[in-house]
Please model this.
Amino acid sequence: MTSSDDVTLTSLLTKTVDVMLTSLLTKTADVMLTSSDDVTLTSLMTSLLTQSLTCRTVSIVDQSDCATCQISSLIRKLSEREPMNKLMLEPWKMKKGRPWKSLGSMIATLMFVGRMVHRYNPYFRQLLVRYIQKLVSGFDPYIQITFDEHSSDALSDHSNSFIAIKHYLEENSSRTAKKLKADSIREGQALLLGMDDDEEITDEYQGVKVWWSCNSKVVQLSKSQHDKQRCYTLSFHRRYRDLITKSYMQHVLNEGIAISLKNRQRKLYTNKNQMTYAYRPTKWAPADFKHPATFDTLALKPEIKKDIMDDLLTFSKAKDYYMKVGKPWKRGYLLYGPPGTGKSTLIAAMANLLQYDVYDLELTSVAGNTELKKLLLETTEKSIIVIEDIDCSLDLTGKREKVKAGEKKETMKQKTSQVTLSGILNAIDGLWSSCAGERIIVLTTNYVEKLDPALIRRGRMDKHIELSYCSFEAFKVLAKNYLDIESHELFGRIEELLAETSTSPADVAENLIPKSAEDNGESCLIRLISVLEDAKEVAMSRKLKAQNTVKKKKKAEESSTLEAAKESSTLVAAKGDYSIRYYLKYVSNYIAYILVRPSAN
Ligand SMILES: Nc1ncnc2c1ncn2[C@@H]1O[C@H](COP(=O)(O)OP(=O)(O)OP(=O)(O)O)[C@@H](O)[C@H]1O
Model:
């Protein structure tokens, strides 16, 4: 056996404990291990072999190579656990001079058999290890719980508890463990360090010590395929079984989930142009969510901003409240307003404030109501589900559009989604009731008046937010963001022009962006003023045109009434019909003629 051999802590522990057990039972060995020394596997075995023939003590010498950590961790493990220590110390205290020469040959045989088993049948080795572990556990008051990397039913899915423990240990192990593994790197963030294989750390909970170790084991995927799987092992004294299995484990899982949410790279999922692969059972395609919008950069009136932020933060912390009142922990937002007023930007700011993922649901890519439900149920907690421009992607009359004669089905498909209004109402209600964990659904539209009242009623869309044209306060936020200007003499003129025009924040923002190297804050403001003046002129001419159209319409109506009155009075007179009915009609038409005539002039 060489120092570079692949030796796991378990196999080494098993081998050594086996020797000790044999010694204990046969009382033939007198072996001394110095617990603080670091050794290599080779040197340990060599020392055992050579010195056991002549000496009563096997010294372990310090050599730094790959097996050192494993053995030193073994020694630490043995020395930290009293009963195991005892087990080892017992044979050392035995009388000197006992015949134990057979120990050398026994170890040599064990090594040989062990090597053969390791090389030719790893499963038999695992069996042997398990058997020896069983034997040892009779003396061991310590309980071990193993958390495998993959859940037993799906090898492709990481077990949730494994992931939570991994994050918990990443946070705690980097301070104490000596062998660390750089797990993943997030842009602009610190390196995440976790425990490496065969490393062990100690954790303390309510004054009780527990030990976590990280190991790898071989799992059989099929007859010819094996895979290496990591697992975490938690060891603790059996006297603390209840405390650890209930309270401590819950604490680890909660902390782990909180850490993973804090450290994760948030995702933007979309179902647009999705392709389903065998290895990707979901129709959501993920991408990293890196939108920079925040409530600070959002051009909105401060009171609206504050109201939205308060609402979101209260919602995100209201788990217990929703439980108490028996309502699913969900909230619906309806954002409406003209194009370019910041609906999409507000959604990004909301996701960044709450640290949620975003699911961008494209209704026109959804095959039908069943698929819609499935997609919504696949969303994870702490997410915002967005349906943009809902009026464009859904037939909101409640009826499916009929295929007109001669119109190809294909063309129909492109127009609106196959999802019906009732389908979306049911899906939203289903989502609300079937999923645990918080979710926000946001609908956006440019034409709120087109939406069915059932879709936007409170309970489905709890908060309605109107995003309107750029106010002067919103402009000041944009000027600060884009030009770093908080006040300027041109602000007064801009304020007047914004009040007289309907300019979206998108248009204002576009004119505040420097377009060349010569552009500076003032030149951008001047450009904005000239654009706003043009917009004012256009608005005025439109207004004039609209006024003229109204006037013309009114005139046309009046003259047609006049004509009708004239006509009927002439008719009555010509007929010479003096019956009471015609006489009354004549009088009423005459009155109408008298009333209308002055305005006609
Ligand atoms: N309120 C705002 N605050 C900051 N930037 C804004 C705001 N509104 C618009 N913008 C800017 O204008 C661009 C377009 O805005 P956004 O896409 O959010 O508008 P929208 O209302 O979603 O438009 P549409 O209805 O056409 O989808 C954004 O990239 C953003 O830079």
About this structure: Residues 337 and 467 are 5 Å apart (CA to CA). DSSP finds 21 helices and 15 strands in the chain.
